[in-house]
Amino acid sequence: MKLASVTVDGVRRAGVVDAVEQSVALLDTTVDDIVRGGATGTPGEVLPLSEVRLESPLHRFRRDVLCTGWNYLDHFEELKGKRGGQEPESLPEHPTFFTKGPDTVIGPFDDIAYDAALSQKWDYEAEIAMVIGRDGRSIPEEKALDHVFGFLVANDVSQRDLQRAHGGQWLKGKSIDATMPLGPWITTTDSVDLGALRVQCEVNGVLMQDASSTQMAFSFARIIAELSWGMTLRAGDVILTGTPSGVGNAREPQVFLRDGDVVVTRVSGLGELRNTVTSTDLGQGGRER
Question: Which of 193, 169, 160, 179 is nearest to 267 (CA)?
Fold first, then answer.
């Protein structure tokens, strides 16, 4: 099943997407309530996908978005000598975790905020994201996937200079408002072949990232097991699982996003995001007074 979030007549609704018929059957509940509370909703009107605007599937977050770094071997290798002094001697034995503020989240077709005064190094990172559907702490690896509600597509747009500038902590360079597309819907685990997910990112029609989930250093189950060790994961938590090689920061010459760039992020079986990088005042002029 594919669960999308749409707004109809000013009301946010969940919808079940039929990718073949290109339609969505509206439900009288929200995706947040389905994921967190087990609500099912009553099917209602069926609309063509072309007549609705898809939003971020989830809108209510209890905590930061949870993220995994350096989880594709080729990506780890391509960044050697390019980490701004944050250089591990070898691939870590455990997943590297960090968080992003929830205000980063935008919809699958929304504009990615861009402010050149804030950063000159806006980078793309195509990723597979998981949504937790059942609370758990210290979850055994063999039971980890039982706690996953579904999977979706994300782009962990990062500001590399900010990422390196604050004591080696990544939070700032990963948490700029309105910069992380998420969606286009949640595909439930029973409809996902985890061994055949292809992750891609295009910028202005040029393929920049292209990899398989089989290249991950740490599996989806291992990520959940390690992250939940002593730490409760809650239904509705979003976990990003890492990006493959091809990021702009590792290229020669480097390639960073600019105003007007079109970024397409796709994962086979999970859907596609299409976002335009758009100049936005995120600094002094845009600050709430």
Answer: 193
Phi, psi of 93 (to 5 degrees): -75, -15
- pTM value > 0.85: yes
Q: What is the pLDDT of residues 135-157, one digit of tens each?
A: 999 999 999 999 999 999 999 99
For 5-49, how does the pLDDT look when each residue is reduced to its tens digit (9 = 90+)?
A: 998 888 899 999 999 999 999 999 999 999 998 878 888 899 999
Sequence-ordered list of residues with C-beta below 8 angstroms from that of 165, at least 6 positions apart, any chain: 172, 173
For residues 170 and 66, what is the distance between their CA atoms, to the nearest angstrom?
12
| Separation CA 166–CA 137 (nearest Å) | 30
What element of type H or E holds 184?
strand 180-188
Write out the E strands in 213-270: 238-240, 262-267
**Backbone φ/ψ region at 85: left (φ over 0), alpha (ψ -120 to 50), beta:** left
